[in-house]
Each structure stands twice: as structure tokens, then as C-alpha cells.
Specification:
signal, Secreted protein, 60s Ribosomal Protein L30, Chain: A, four-stranded mixed sheet, 3 helices, alpha+beta, 32% helix, rod-shaped, 4 strands
Length: 143
Amino acid sequence: MLAGWLFADLLLVLALVSMADRPDPLADDRPEPSPTKPTPTPTGPRAVDRNPREFTVSGRDKGDLVEQISRGTRKWKGRTAALVLTFGGGPNGTVYAHRVNGLLGKGRGDMFTGKTATDDFHNLGKRPETAVVRVYFYTAPGG
């Protein structure tokens, strides 16, 4: 009779051990975490490149000036100008520089937007109806 109780106790211990080894079925009902949205790449404020690019225009004809602006900025196509400093030649250089700055958008509208800041200067060392256009571009996004 003792052997029967011993056998029953051993079976009970084996049953408890096998039940303890199994995972809790109710613990599996936890909801899966929802997929997270991809985080957008932070762009932050744009910076201005400290190294300006320059080109020169000259003449009186409006169409010719627009063509010179287009040709002079071709190598920087796809970039956006942040600031333009234009130095017109001669004593009335600021008037000429203002005229050139007014034509920048016609020469390359995608580069010189309404948000591009321009300033007019005169350069007494240059001949009249000549302007040096100094363009400061925004840096590439993230850079």
C-alpha cells in the first residue's frame, strides 16, 4: 500500500513539473505592438554656403542680360539662391545692379525665387553697365 501512495505522489510531482514547464496560455493574449511610423528625416533650417559663386553680365539690352544670367548660372542649375550681392560698375552702379537683380528671376526662375534676398552695390573700379553678381546658395539638405 505504501508503494501505491509513493507511485501516486511521483505521478503528481511529474504532472506539476510538466505543467510548470509550459507557457501560460493567457499570457499570450497580449496585443502585438502596432508598427511604428517611419520617422521622417529631419531637415532643420537650411544653411547658407559661405563661399559665393560669381558671374559677370554687361550691356543694356534686357533680353541679352537675361540670356547672360541664364548662361552664367547654368553650372549651378538645381540649386537655390539665398542671397545675391550685385556690384554694378561706375558711379551709377547701384542703379544698374538693381536692374540686373530685377532680371534674375527671368534668367533662372527656379534658382532666384521671390524669397531670394538681393542687394545693390556700386563698384567704381568696373566700367559702367557691367555687373559682378555674387550668389550665396543654400546648402544641400542635411548638409
